Amino acid sequence: MQQLDFELRGDFITLDALLKATGLAHSGGAAKAMVAAGKVAVDGREELRKTCKLRAGQVVALHGARVRIVAGATAATATSSSCCDPAPRS
After folding, report:
1. Partners of residue 59 on adjacent β-strands
2. SS3 for 72?
3. Which residues pair with 17 in a beta bridge?
4. Which SS3 state, helix, strand or coil, does residue 33 take?
5. How far apart are the first and last CA of the chain?
6. Which residues contact 64 (CB under 8 A, 6 or more apart)?
7. How far from chain centre, in Å, is Cα 24?
8. What angle is formed at CA 30 by the lines to CA 50 and CA 75, rounded to 5 degrees?
9. Is the pTM of the predicted complex or chain greater than 0.85?
10. Phi/psi zone of residue 62: left (φ > 0), alpha (ψ -120 to 50 degrees), beta?
């Protein structure tokens, strides 16, 4: 299985952008199709939201590849919430 580390340049990256940036999808449209088809998991759970926000510490897996999101030099401190969990409402 291919293992990749992806360094964030900000607080988060969307799932479709990550797939394209790592070369796991050849285009943004292909990335969105992969997610819609249920071929992508985030932290071990199927993820169907194309623009799910990924933060440092999360792991994305698909067809023989794993991408670990790591904080970059300019990234703010990561939060412990998962993109797969609904955000609390005020």
Report:
1. 68
2. coil
3. none
4. helix
5. 41
6. 1, 2
7. 12
8. 50
9. no
10. beta
Domain locations in the chain as residue ranges:
2-70
Q: Per the structure block, which two tokens stand in for 34?
A: 């992969």
Residue 28 confidence (pLDDT): 94
CATH class held by domain 2-70: alpha beta
**Residue 50 in contact with residue 22, Cβ under 8 Å?**
no
The closest alpha carbon to 53, from 38, 43, 62, belongs to 43
Residue 1 one-letter amino acid: M
Mean pLDDT value of segment 24-39:
96
What is the tens place of the pLDDT at every residue in 50-85?
999 999 999 999 988 999 999 987 544 444 445 555
